[in-house]
């Protein structure tokens, strides 16, 4: 299957994934399996926070291992953000123990919540910063392409004008040569 046909058929499944690497094509499968493990932990393991944390942590670690070993995304920033987000999810899942009765003092649990909110807020800010940097890069690239096309169009117009002048001069020289031959 050609590259364009592949992208037309499966493009939305592999957005920002380097689909030219065969092992990267497993990304969607692993992503869905991780989501199924999350659903399993929420529905079946709802009575045991320890097993919920264990199941979700193992799923996140598996995905993190895949990201680090295979680097399946199209470029470095996309791989970085995926790895960063998996680490954040792993730390958030592990910190869920701080909100259970394993920490008997409710004030401590309450304060831990603020720290977790700061941490998650910081990771959201990092994601937004990377998103803004990518947007600025895309706008900059589009502007450079537009300027290049504008300069190229101007150059082509100037070249066509020079060609017309050259043809006129050539015609003049040819007519003068014909006159001198007679």
Protein architecture, described:
The protein is mainly alpha-helical and 182 residues long. Helix content is 79%, strand content 0%. The protein has helices at residues 3-10, 27-43, 49-70, 76-95, 106-181. The protein starts with a helix and ends with a helix. The model has no long low-confidence stretch (mean pLDDT 87).
Instruction: Determine the mean pLDDT.
Output: 87
Any idea what the radius of gyration is?
30 Å
Biggest β-sheet: count, sense, barrel?
A: none
Inertia-based shape: elongated
Indicate the multimeric state.
Answer: single chain
Summed up:
The chain has helices at 3-10, 27-43, 49-70, 76-95, 106-181. It is an all-alpha fold and 182 residues long.
Brief descriptors of the model:
182 residues, 0% strand, single chain
Produce the secondary structure layout.
Blueprint: H1 3-10, H2 27-43, H3 49-70, H4 76-95, H5 106-181
């Amino acid at each position: 299957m050609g590259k364009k046909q592949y992208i037309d058929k499966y493009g939305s499944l592999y957005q920002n994934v380097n689909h030219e690497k065969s092992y990267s094509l497993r990304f969607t499968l692993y992503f869905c399996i991780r989501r199924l493990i999350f659903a399993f932990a929420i529905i079946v393991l709802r009575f045991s926070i320890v097993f919920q944390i264990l199941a979700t942590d193992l799923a996140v670690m598996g995905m993190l291992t895949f990201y680090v070993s295979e680097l399946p995304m199209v470029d470095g920033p996309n791989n970085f953000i995926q790895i960063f987000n998996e680490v954040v999810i792993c730390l958030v899942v592990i910190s869920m123990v701080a909100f259970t009765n394993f920490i008997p003092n409710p004030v401590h649990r309450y304060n831990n919540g603020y720290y977790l909110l700061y941490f998650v807020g910081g990771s959201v800010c990092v994601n937004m910063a990377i998103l803004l940097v990518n947007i600025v890069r895309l706008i900059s690239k589009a502007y450079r392409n537009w300027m290049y096309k504008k300069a190229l169009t101007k150059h082509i117009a100037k070249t066509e004008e020079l060609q017309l002048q050259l043809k006129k001069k050539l015609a003049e020289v040819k007519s003068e040569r014909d006159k001198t031959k007679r």
